[in-house]
Hints:
Number of helices: 8
Largest sheet: none
Shape: rod-shaped
Number of domains: 1
Helix content: over 70%
Distance between the termini: 66 Å
Order of helices and strands: HHHHHHHH
Oligomer: single chain
Number of strands: 0
Radius of gyration: 25 Å
Structural class: mainly alpha
Amino acid sequence: MNTLIEGAGIFLWPLTFCSILVVYLIAERAIALRVSRVMPESVVKYVQAGQMDKVTSEMADSLAGRVVLRWKEGLRGEALKSFARGELVRLQRGFFLIDSIVAAAPLLGLLGTVTGLATLFPEHGLPDSQTLTRGVGLALSTTMIGLCIAIPALMGVNWLGRRVELLSAQVDLLVETLEQKRA
Length: 183
């Protein structure tokens, strides 16, 4: 492990930053996208029972609560659907950063590979064994670390995207239920 880290050279810093940031973003979004936080059971039950008056401003910390409160304020039809879509977009906060890390981490690894291989060709003659070892180590270490960051990050952002799709379907159903209960 130490050889891997030492072999990454200067590229270890941006790769470490990418790995810490992607872990934070995935964990934060996983917590934020819990069903109980976006579509609390109490709000859904009130809407299904036609008791929207029981949805109070204290429930506005959830997406479902904000949609119902806007409906209670008189927002209807396409305006309510647009509001709900806007709220769903907010759920995807940080996804573009994860996508950027998925793309950038292997590229940083590739840059390390190219840099490592470039050190193998000195101006005069063949490289000594220490230069050869250092260059190949940099090339292999950065590539491996970049891929070890990108692959789990890709899996994480795909999982989060699927969660948003499922929540989106539930929000659409909530909006349709509210629309059917027009006063």
